[in-house]
Write a structure and sequence with these properties.
It is a single chain. This protein is an alpha/beta fold. The protein folds into 2 domains: about 55 residues, no CATH class; about 200 residues, Rossmann fold. Helix content is about 35%, strand content about 25%. The strands form 4 sheets. It has a 6-stranded mixed beta sheet with strand order 4-3-2-5-6-11, sandwiched between helices. α1 runs antiparallel to α8, α2 packs antiparallel against α3 and α4 packs parallel to α5. The radius of gyration is 29 Å and the shape is globular. The chain starts with a helix and ends with a helix.
């Protein structure tokens, strides 16, 4: 019994033996996600709020990718590259964990600056295979996003603009010490953030991209992935990796063999004991 248990535990460790080198070819496009982290992304017209929903769907979007390089740009009153283009999807998702509306201390929504920052991440070697996924409510307070989109188009960048929010708009909650209030302007009026679909659609059209309208409970990144997956791919390089062969079958077979032999011996001992008992008084 002990021997059988030993081999069973050994099989559960999934031992491997032997190996072979394989060459993995990667083909895809370069995708920079530009995420709006301004205060307006706290609006709750999409549950739980705009930014939390966007972050959740970005992680799911990264899981969809197969061979495409991914990068991340955050923007509010200014923009910066959170993650350069990479094939390490796990690292990209890890960097998203701490993102919120306080990540960038400069308030505002600089969409034009975000487009330029994301465009610079691609380099200038090629005029295709470049995608910016712009996730925002479209309210720009610091520049001309359409002009920035035209510059991106000249560099061969396609923009998929993902609208977050509603046309009717929503108040922006401000939570302090367990209390909930709503953002006000300098005159004391409540600020309502609205989705600027016209600007987003115009930016996308200039770059041969697409504007993705918000759906009920979703920001629509699944649609973006479907369109990107149909694009022409480029060779992103190859790498060798080692593949080991599973050998858990051997100790598993020995474990079953030991259990089978133990069962036979147990039955035999029982039969012998019963036979001897007939002659005992």
């Amino acid at each position: 019994m002990v021997t059988g248990l030993f081999f069973l535990v050994l099989a559960l460790t999934q031992p491997k033996a032997g190996m072979k080198m394989e060459l993995l070819h990667r083909r895809g496009v370069d995708v920079m996600i530009a995420l709006d982290t301004s205060m307006s992304m706290l609006a709750e017209d999409i549950r739980p709020n705009r930014i939390r929903r966007a972050l959740f769907e970005i992680e799911a979007f990264i899981d969809y990718l197969e061979g495409d390089r991914i990068g991340l740009v955050l923007f509010a009153g200014r923009s910066f590259t959170l993650c350069p283009l990479t094939l390490d999807y796990g690292a990209a998702k890890l960097l998203l964990d701490g993102v919120d509306t306080d990540t960038i201390p400069v308030k505002g929504t600089a969409i034009a600056d975000a487009i330029r920052t994301a465009s610079r991440a691609f380099g200038s070697e090629e005029r295709k295979y470049k995608v910016i996924v712009l996730i925002t409510d479209g309210e720009d307070h610091a520049g001309d996003p359409v002009a920035a989109a035209e510059e991106a188009a000249e560099a061969g960048v396609r923009i998929f603009a993902v609208g977050v929010g509603t046309r009717d708009g929503e108040l922006i909650p401000v939570r302090e010490g367990g209390r909930v209030d709503y953002m006000k302007d300098r005159q004391g009026n409540y600020v309502k953030t609205r989705l600027d679909e016209a600007t987003l659609a115009k930016m996308a059209s200039f770059t041969d991209g697409a504007y993705i309208r918000p759906q009920t409970g979703s920001v629509g990144l699944r649609q973006v992935y479907q369109q990107i997956s149909e694009m022409e791919k480029k060779d992103l390089g190859s790498r060798k990796y080692t593949q080991y062969k599973d050998r858990f079958q051997w100790p598993l077979a020995l474990a079953f063999g030991c259990f089978f032999i133990e069962a036979l011996m147990s039955d035999r001992r029982k039969s012998v004991g019963e036979w001897r008992g007939r002659f005992q008084t």
